[in-house]
């Protein structure tokens, strides 16, 4: 199950939850009991579907340098 990082906007705490991907956008409750939390972008890659890096395009091919 993927883990998501959240930050509480009430107390500033950051915490991590393991929850189904389908619930990743659901409100999370901080350890202090606050519910004003936001999900942080994390580098956790699950399933290996991370976005491919941008291709070099023109400049990557050396045709414009
Ligand atoms: Zn809190």
Label this structure with key terms.
mainly beta; 65 residues; 23% strand; binds zinc ion; elongated; 3-stranded antiparallel β-sheet
Structure commentary:
The chain has 65 residues and is mainly beta. The chain has a domain at 3-39. Helices cover 6% and strands 23% of the residues. The chain is built from one helix and three strands, in the order E-E-E-H. A three-stranded antiparallel beta sheet has the order 2-1-3, with no helix packed on it. The longest helix is centred in the C-terminal third of the chain and has 4 residues, at 57-60. The protein is elongated, with a radius of gyration of 18 Å. The model has no long low-confidence stretch (mean pLDDT 79). Residues 8, 10-11, 13, 30, 32, 34 line the site of zinc ion.
Which small molecules are bound?
A: zinc ion
Briefly note the structural class of the backbone. mainly beta
Strand content: 15-25%
Helix content: under 10%
Trace the largest sheet across and list its strands: 2-1-3
Note the run of SSEs as H and E. EEEH
Total E-strand runs = 3
Low-confidence region ranges: none
Tell me the span between the first and last alpha carbons.
46 Å
Mean pLDDT, to the nearest integer, reads 79
Q: What is the number of helices?
A: 1
* Overall body shape: elongated
Radius of gyration: 18 Å
Largest sheet: 3 strands, antiparallel
């Amino acid at each position: 199950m993927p883990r998501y990082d959240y930050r509480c906007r009430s107390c500033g705490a950051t915490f991590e939850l393991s929850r189904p991907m389908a619930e990743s956008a659901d409100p999370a409750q901080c350890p202090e009991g606050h519910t004003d939390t936001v999900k942080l972008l994390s580098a956790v890659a699950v399933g290996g579907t991370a976005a491919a890096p941008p291709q070099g395009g023109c400049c990557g091919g050396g045709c414009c340098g």
